[in-house]
Amino acid sequence: MRGRLPWRAARLREVRVETATARTLVFEVPGWPGHLAGQHVDVRLTAGDGYTAQRSYSLAAPPDGELVALTVETVPDGEVSPYLTEVMEPGDLVEIRGPVGGWFVWRPASRAPVLLVGGGSGIVPLMAMIRERRRVGSRAPFRLVYSLRDPESRYYAEELRRPDPGLDVTYLYTRAAPDGVSRPAGRVTLADLAEGGWPTGFEADCYVCGPTGFVEAAADLLLALGHAPERVRTERFGPTGG
């Protein structure tokens, strides 16, 4: 099915700064069919000599007509991400194909508690789920456990500070924790997920996204806590050259 999806022209409409190295790009995509929170797209660049490069990026926001939002982290010496985050200006064009994926998605009809576990830029599809929950007025309770290097690496910092009934957010820092935080910097632990997540008896749907090593470790910890394997959904990414 992936190969049958058409490439569509996407015109950059807006750029928002998330961190020193990450930007949210909002594109207008005529004919966009809509998508589910948690899906991703392929982005293709074509040079003047015909050379093409493409990468996959998670959708950062729920469906909104013909608008598609991506949050992109700059990969040094990458082929695609530096162009998207440092060169593109509103009005410029790329090609987008999607949406892709049907397993790592949250559907508003679900009423089960949700645990989101994100590592670094793995927060992006999870944020789409949080925004979709808010958009549709869902009463499903959400908990987010967000692991990142340091406070300056936070995506969507202002938005996640705002009161959002039914959403609890826990930050875990791996390299440098801010002043006043009792948990020392370090990798996610069984205790972190037990405290920031849901008791297994609540039968929560768990979504884990981030670098491969983080996802494997976090998923193993969730299983060790007693979460049912069929309720633990994972999305991982590795080095792609950007």
Automatic annotation (TrEMBL):
<dbReference type="InterPro" id="IPR050415">
    <property type="entry name" value="MRET"/>
</dbReference>
<keyword id="KW-0408">Iron</keyword>
<keyword id="KW-0479">Metal-binding</keyword>
<protein>
    <submittedName>
        <fullName>Benzoate 1,2-dioxygenase electron transfer component</fullName>
    </submittedName>
</protein>
<dbReference type="Pfam" id="PF00970">
    <property type="entry name" value="FAD_binding_6"/>
</dbReference>
<dbReference type="InterPro" id="IPR001433">
    <property type="entry name" value="OxRdtase_FAD/NAD-bd"/>
</dbReference>
<keyword id="KW-0001">2Fe-2S</keyword>
<dbReference type="InterPro" id="IPR008333">
    <property type="entry name" value="Cbr1-like_FAD-bd_dom"/>
</dbReference>
<dbReference type="InterPro" id="IPR017938">
    <property type="entry name" value="Riboflavin_synthase-like_b-brl"/>
</dbReference>
<keyword id="KW-0411">Iron-sulfur</keyword>
<dbReference type="InterPro" id="IPR039261">
    <property type="entry name" value="FNR_nucleotide-bd"/>
</dbReference>
<feature type="domain" description="FAD-binding FR-type">
    <location>
        <begin position="5"/>
        <end position="106"/>
    </location>
</feature>
<dbReference type="InterPro" id="IPR017927">
    <property type="entry name" value="FAD-bd_FR_type"/>
</dbReference>
<dbReference type="Pfam" id="PF00175">
    <property type="entry name" value="NAD_binding_1"/>
</dbReference>
